[in-house]
């Protein structure tokens, strides 16, 4: 094989994902070369600590000098699986300015500095691929950017954090508390000892920003995403939802807002616990699996399902990118670049429209329903169903609304709190996936 029939790869990071990339590049060497039209060879691997044992990895490739990898003129392509913003950002920018294509799985970096990285890859005329950054093994970014680019995406709604989906699945199926389900997820290695990034929705928000940017041809950063995590979800919330035929999921939703009076089209991007009917396709996504539901003007509803994390599934997406870049290089071409031509405004959360389930502790006295109903109506929110259960002198009132704006709902909650008959608004959970 002559020199120009080889693509030399520098790998930044050899953790869970990096080690699997290295292993699969050797194990599937011949198939990958046949599909790429060139041999794919790992030339250097940058790691933080050279002393960590790395079975199956040729130790002569290891260096703790990541800069030497992105500066090495013999390397054609960098795979970045260090994660986090720095030093990944600086290393990727340097690799690009040195003419290297880049493949990354780094959602946090893309969600904060995507525009800078896309611009740098354009300037340097190099490929920049990142399928693994959202929903691990699931091919979702390329379908949005390429297969569906002839259509108009109206909405993307996904379960894109496996840790929270595992916790919520356990709460739904066993009646566990949030703390109990989190402890189980931690003991099984699904949740980190500091679970903040997952349970508070930061991980899902970063992925939501990337999905929204591609779906709506607009620059979206993690700061544009409205975010609520699942820490506040109680076993009671889950059991009320279940009794009503719903399951609670942490959903990421990016959608075009309907033009209600405003002239400019805007989008909303939000991550929050959401009740969906048990019959909705996303309700069947259990444990640590991910799924992304896409609604398009012409294609209608599509769903992409699979493993959203883990070394081997994530490596699958990275190797797909690697082969794509190798094929582009053979043809002297580049893959499609980002489009942000639409440049849509991201609406504040108050503009978003959905349904809501409000649980209240109320006094069980005549006229309660009437005063709750008139308070809700006064705020232009319409009630779909009401459920009441007596508990001695008190009762729990569960109100499911029709679609209303977040600002109308916020005002409703404020007014309900003021009513003498309402002892406490216990919880409010958004509801998606109802047809009427
Ligand atoms: N911690 C993430 C999850 C995986 O639970 O889905 C990496 O994004």
Please tell me about this protein's structure.
The N and C termini lie far apart (62 Å). The protein folds into three domains: 6-136 and 311-331, Rossmann fold, CATH 3.40.50; 141-307, 2-Layer Sandwich (Dihydrodipicolinate Reductase, domain 2); 349-431, Alpha-Beta Plaits (2-Layer Sandwich), CATH 3.30.70. It has 436 residues and is α/β, with parallel strands linked by helices. It has 14 helices and 18 strands. It has helices at 16-27, 29-36, 66-70, 88-97, 107-124, 141-147, 162-174, 178-187, 196-199, 202-216, 235-243, 311-330, 368-378, 406-418, and strands at residues 6-12, 39-46, 62-63, 77-80, 101-104, 128-129, 153-159, 226-227, 246-256, 266-277, 289-296, 300-307, 345-346, 353-363, 383-391, 394-401, 404-405, 422-431. The mean pLDDT is 96. It is elongated. Strands 7, 8, 9, 10, 11, 12, 13, 14, 15, 16, 17 and 18 form a twelve-stranded mixed sheet that branches. A six-stranded parallel sheet has the order 3-2-1-4-5-6, sandwiched between helices. L-homoserine (HSE) binds next to helix 7.
Q: How would you sum up this structure in a few lines?
A:
The chain is of the alpha/beta class. Helix content is 36%, strand content 27%. The protein binds L-homoserine.
């Amino acid at each position: 094989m002559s020199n120009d029939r080889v693509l030399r790869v520098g790998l930044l990071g050899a953790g869970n994902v990096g080690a699997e990339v290295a292993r699969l590049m050797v194990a599937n060497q011949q198939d990958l070369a046949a599909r790429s039209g060139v041999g794919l060879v790992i030339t250097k691997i940058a790691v933080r600590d050279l002393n960590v044992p790395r079975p199956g990895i040729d130790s002569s490739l290891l260096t703790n000098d990541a800069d030497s990898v992105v500066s090495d003129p013999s390397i054609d392509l960098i795979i970045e699986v260090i994660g986090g913003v720095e030093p990944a950002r600086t290393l990727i920018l340097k690799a690009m300015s040195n003419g290297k294509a880049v493949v990354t799985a780094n959602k946090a970096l893309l969600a904060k500095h995507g525009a800078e990285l896309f611009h740098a890859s354009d300037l340097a005329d190099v490929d920049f691929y990142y399928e693994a950054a959202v929903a691990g093994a699931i091919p979702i970014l390329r379908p949005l950017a390429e297969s569906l680019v002839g259509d108009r995406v109206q909405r993307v709604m996904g379960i894109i954090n496996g840790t929270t989906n595992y916790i919520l699945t356990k709460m739904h199926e066993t009646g566990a508390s949030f703390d109990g389900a989190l402890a189980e997820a931690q003991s099984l290695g699904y949740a980190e000892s500091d679970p903040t990034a997952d349970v508070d929705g930061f991980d899902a928000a970063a992925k939501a920003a990337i999905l929204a940017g591609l779906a709506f041809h607009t620059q979206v950063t993690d700061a544009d995403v409205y975010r609520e995590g699942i820490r506040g979800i109680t076993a009671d919330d889950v059991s009320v939802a279940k009794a009503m035929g719903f399951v609670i999921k942490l959903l990421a939703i990016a959608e075009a807002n309907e033009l209600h009076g405003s002239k400019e089209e805007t989008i909303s991007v939000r991550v929050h616990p959401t009740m969906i009917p048990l019959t909705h396709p996303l309700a069947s996504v259990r444990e640590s699996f991910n799924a992304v539901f896409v609604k398009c003007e012409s294609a209608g509803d599509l769903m992409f399902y699979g493993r959203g994390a883990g070394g081997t599934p994530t490596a699958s997406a990275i190797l797909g990118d690697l082969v794509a870049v190798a094929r582009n290089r053979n043809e002297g071409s580049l893959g499609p670049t980002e489009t942000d031509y639409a440049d849509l405004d991201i609406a504040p959360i108050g503009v978003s429209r959905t349904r809501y389930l409000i649980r209240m502790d109320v006094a069980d006295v005549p006229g309660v329903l009437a005063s709750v109903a008139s308070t809700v109506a006064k705020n232009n929110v319409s009630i779909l169903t009401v459920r009441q259960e007596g508990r001695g002198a008190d009762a729990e009132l569960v109100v499911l609304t029709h679609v209303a704006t977040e600002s109308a709902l916020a005002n409703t909650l404020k007014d309900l709190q003021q009513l003498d008959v309402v002892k406490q608004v216990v919880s409010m959970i958004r509801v998606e996936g109802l047809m009427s």
